[in-house]
Amino acid sequence: MGVYLDTDNRFHRAGATTSLQCPHCGIHAHMRVGSVPDFTQMQIHRPKQVGIALHCEACNMPVFLRYGVKDYRARQIEFFTSGHQIERPTETFSYDYLPALVADAFKDALGCYTNSLLTAFAVMCRRTVLAAFDELGEQGKIKCYEQVNEIQQLANIDAGDFDMVRTIIFETDLAKTTDIAKINPMQAAILLETMRDMLYQVFVRGGKLQKALQLRRYFAEQAEQHNEAGAAAQETTTVPDNDSIIVRAMKRANGN
Ligand SMILES: [Zn+2]
């Protein structure tokens, strides 16, 4: 049981997760084993970490993981269960709906997260919210505060982890970015989802709604113009007929 390499260079993953979110196609797919290190070479050089190449079954692209070695045994080399994914899926967002300064900062924040630079990610999140609050004003900031509290309740997030997130977003005493403490992967994941939801609610949702209404208004106007044009065309084609009927009737009445 566990994750290990046998003497025939077969990589076993009993009990370990065999599906991941692919950094190439973004699908949470099953990953089949591609290339593994050589058992004999590993026994000679005894590296503490090794790289394993998997292949995504959705797009067939290679996905690289780094595994820490737990134990060298005569018949098998045992690894720690979870491998570190070298390439993370690129985090995306509907930047078009964000004000330019907010979009620039959040793009960098997501770039940091994708590359596992978690403290840099937190610093860029702070910069993102400062740009957003400048744009939204005091009322908007209060709305964000309510929004963030709602996220904690809806997602039932641990208060300890969430306090860190709330500090990064709202703490007015954070004068410098160096005041932001180091955050762990769980806090970073919570911060990421909180930022996404908050920015979506205050910028993207309204923007999408306005765009959808603009489109509907445009199509309604087009349909109205089309109907008016149709009615006018019908009028111009029927008028001469009516005239000729009237003219013919008058001629007939006059005995012509
Ligand atoms: Zn894929």
Q: H/E series, N to C?
A: EEEEHEEEEHHHH
Name the poorly predicted regions: none
Into which percent range does the helicity of residues fall? 55-70%
Work out the strand percent.
15-25%
Mean pLDDT comes to 86
Number of strands: 8
Distance between the termini: 110 Å
Category from helices, strands and their pairing: alpha+beta
Q: Could you describe the largest sheet, including whether it forms a barrel? A: 8 strands, antiparallel
What coarse outline follows from CA principal-axis ratios?
A: flat
Number of distinct helices = 5
User: Mind telling me the C-alpha Rg?
Assistant: 32 Å
Number of structurally distinct domains:
2
The hetero compounds bound to this protein are: zinc ion
What does the model show?
The chain is an alpha+beta fold. It folds into two domains: 2-85, no CATH class; 95-209, no CATH class. 55% of the residues lie in helices and 18% in strands. The protein has helices spanning 39-45, 100-114, 118-155, 159-170, 185-253, and strands spanning 2-6, 11-14, 19-21, 28-35, 49-56, 62-72, 76-79, 84-85. Strands 1, 2, 3, 4, 5, 6, 7 and 8 form an eight-stranded antiparallel sheet that branches. Strand 5 and strand 6 (62-72) form a beta hairpin. Helix 2 packs across helix 3. The longest helix has 69 residues, at 185-253. The chain starts with a strand and ends with a helix. The model has no long low-confidence stretch (mean pLDDT 86). The structure holds zinc ion. Zinc ion is lined by residues 22, 24-25, 27, 29, 56, 58-59, 61.
